[in-house]
Amino acid sequence: DAFASGAIPGAVNVPAATLHEENRFRNDILRALGATSRGDGTLDFSSAMNLALYSGGVWSSDAAEAIKNLLAAGYPPEKLFYYRGGMQAWMHVGLTVHTPANSG
Known about the structure:
The protein is of the alpha+beta class. It has helices at residues 2-5, 26-32, 62-73, 86-92, and strands at residues 36-37, 43-44, 51-53, 80-82. 29% of the residues lie in helices and 10% in strands. The model has no long low-confidence stretch (mean pLDDT 92).
């Protein structure tokens, strides 16, 4: 609901829980982010995307949890960037917000 009410332009909603190791679709999500399957069942992240993660604000642990789950999956830390202020700080300084009403 929070993402639908406003997001940083270009953002994609990937809830932190979907990156948890118990999610049977986690590797599918990681492959969508650029990881490739190795023959031994592990993932190679050398071509994975750089990701900027954020959540609702400094009070939210969603982005930190997502980062923790990505690191546990083997995602390279140098490809992860954390915007700690989240939407709260983004909106506070008056930056552009994407909503379904102004998408197009």
